[in-house]
Amino acid sequence: QALRQLLFLISGTTLNCLLLRKDTCSWSCGIQLRYNISQVEQWLRAQGLQQSGACEVLQPLVQAAQLLQVKKVTEEDAGALCSLCTVLTPQQVVKILRAYSPAAGLEERVSPRFISSVERRLQDQYGEGPGQLLVDTSQLFPVQLPFTPSPLHLDELHIPETLNLAFL
């Protein structure tokens, strides 16, 4: 549970930095993010912690990394991108697309027409409800403690008189 909370904090902070800093929105940053996340996921599997919910808190970051890596040119690309980004809010997807910095000489800038196409598709898919841009990293997951009943019955307990708990 502590690991899940820690990975949520790391994932949320990283996604917020990605959304706020234009210099981090690039293909190479997406590759680096995806590699690092896969290393964390591999470690979780090796430790037998894949059922802890830790992998789920990494999903927004995984999708953001994939968003930075996909092709962003045609209408088919827009459809694939919309089906890929199921955990990110439409505002987050559009913000990353607008901040995307293409590799010098290797890619073209994401066209405004493509961004508006993605935005329209996401609004059709999710509606126009108020979306959250940044991740609230102060969110705390509830701690769940397993309850194991005692095999001893209360009437079988012997409380020493030196404790002065005769009223029990």
What this model shows, in words?
This protein is mainly α and 168 residues long. The chain has one domain. The chain is built from 7 helices and no strands. Helix 2 packs antiparallel against helix 4. The longest helix has 20 residues. The chain is elongated and about 85 Å long. It starts with a helix and ends in a 42-residue tail after the last helix. The model has no long low-confidence stretch (mean pLDDT 89).
Describe the structure using short key phrases.
mainly alpha
Radius of gyration of CA atoms, rounded to a whole number? 24 Å
What is the number of independent domains?
Answer: 1
Structural class: mainly alpha
Strand content: under 5%
Q: Uncertain regions: pLDDT < 50 for 5+ in a row?
A: none
Largest sheet, in brief, is: none
Supply the number of helical segments.
Answer: 7
- Average pLDDT for all residues: 89
Organism: Machaerirhynchus nigripectus
GO molecular function: GTPase binding
Keywords: Signal
Domain Dilute: 1-124
